[in-house]
Amino acid sequence: MSPRRLADVFANLRRNGAMGRVEVGFLLATMVEWAGWLALIVYAFSRGGAAEAGLIGFAVGLPAILVAPTAAILGDRHPRSRVMFTAYGSQAVAFMAAGVAFMLGEATVGYGLGIVEMALIALTRPLLASLLPEIARSPEELTAGRRARIAAEDGANKLPT
Fold first, then answer.
1. Which residues contact 51 (CB under 8 A, 6 or more apart)?
2. Closest alpha carbon to 38 in 57, 65, 52
3. 89: buried, middle or exposed (CB in 10 Å: 19+, 13-18, 0-12)?
4. How many angstroms separate the CA atoms of 40 and 38, rounded?
5. How many other CB atoms are found less than 10 A from the CB of residue 120?
6. Around Cβ 84, how many Cβ atoms within 10 Å?
7. Confidence class for position 1, pLDDT limits 50, 70, 90
8. Residue 50 is part of which domain span?
9. What SS3 state is found at 106?
10. What is the pTM of this model?
11. pLDDT tens digits, one per residue of 52-93
């Protein structure tokens, strides 16, 4: 995204405080997601090499595939903002608990909690997609929210390797 378009996106997000807060939360959650995934894989590789890292990488992705469709149902049955807040809070608790488990040498528990955390992260994308139209006051704000989401995900995908 060009710097000019990015500036337009931020200008639109500033006009709608709720939209800006949701997008900043999603940006932070995306950064935590990538950091958590990378930490799990690096830890698994240091313990058991490529085989353990591959197994954990697969185990992290599988529940997310199963959880994502459920997010739309949760967002339809309960207030989306509350479900989103609960998902972010649950992710933080699972992430911290996984860190504690790893520090205590309980790798199996840490892996399990890490997998739960990644499954909870899978809730946020469909919830965000359904929440944005509720809080946008204009098509321009909705477009800005979508562009901010893409920029957050695109930036995470372009991290130096």
1. none
2. 57
3. exposed
4. 5
5. 25
6. 23
7. low
8. 3-157
9. coil
10. 0.73
11. 999 999 998 888 788 777 766 777 788 888 888 888 899 899
Query: Taking phi first (over 0 means left), then psi (-120 to 50 degrees means alpha), and beta for anything else, what does residue 79 get?
Result: beta
User: Does the pLDDT at position 156 exceed 60?
Assistant: no
- The span from the CA of 16 to the CA of 38, in Å, is 33
d(CA 10, CA 105): 43
Q: Provide the 8-state DSSP code for 105.
A: T
Query: From CA 103, how far away is CA 107, in angstroms rounded?
Result: 9
Condensed to tens digits (0 to 9), the pLDDT of residues 70-79 reads 766 777 788 8
Number of domains in the chain: 1
Distance in angstroms (rounded) separating the CA atoms of residues 31 and 7: 21
- The domain spanning residue 36 has which CATH number? 1.20.1250
Q: What is the DSSP string of 28-70?
A: HHHHHHHHHHHHHHHHHHHHHHHHHHHHHHHHHHHHHHHHHHH
* Residue linked to tokens 């649950």: 90
What is the spatial distance between Cα 22 and Cα 103, in angstroms, rounded to a whole number? Answer: 32
